[in-house]
Amino acid sequence: MTNETVKFDAWEQRKLGDVTRIIGGGTPDSHNPQYWNGEVNWFTPTEIDGSHYVKFSKRKITKEGLKKSSAKLLPAGSVLLTSRATIGDMAIILKPSATNQGFQSIATNANISNEFIYAMEPKIKAYALKHAAGSTFLEISSHEVKNMKIPFPSYDEQSKLGDLSVTIGNLIAANQCQQKGLEKLISESLNQEIILN
Q1: Strands 36-43, 59-61: parallel, antiparallel or unpaired by DSSP?
Q2: Cα distances (Å, whole numbers) of residue 178 to 52, 101, 170, 191
């Protein structure tokens, strides 16, 4: 199915796998130094900590490591979705990146807003947790992610909802920062009061 053929009626239920690409990750051989400390971002689930966007990973792999493993280079704007250990956490990558196998990431296209996908995190996470399986540890498979049904409005509505999600997220972050600043100020004032007394 090409990007041009994907059309939506009002809030039409579509499977994620029919309108986006679901891309898993991989890990290069950890004993081969030629695969590590390169220039390619390589994210792990622990790095998805509630931030809306991620740009730099803690560890990086080389182009050779990318080529010689099941890791894939995701296009900028893809939505990372953690699929094991911590399930259902999401972030948008700001530059082309790879991940380990703890992800089933979502690469959008011209008809799907990545911000809208990110805004659907509560629904996606609830689905992922419900459909995760495994004996050693819980994991959501690429098959299950592809079969996840999401109600999609028109692209314009997706964009508006995505923009609203960004605005709300920024307001929450600003309030949290302000709260931390006030807590620090109160703590310093109390400490100063104790010293003076």
Answers
A1: antiparallel
A2: 19, 37, 12, 20
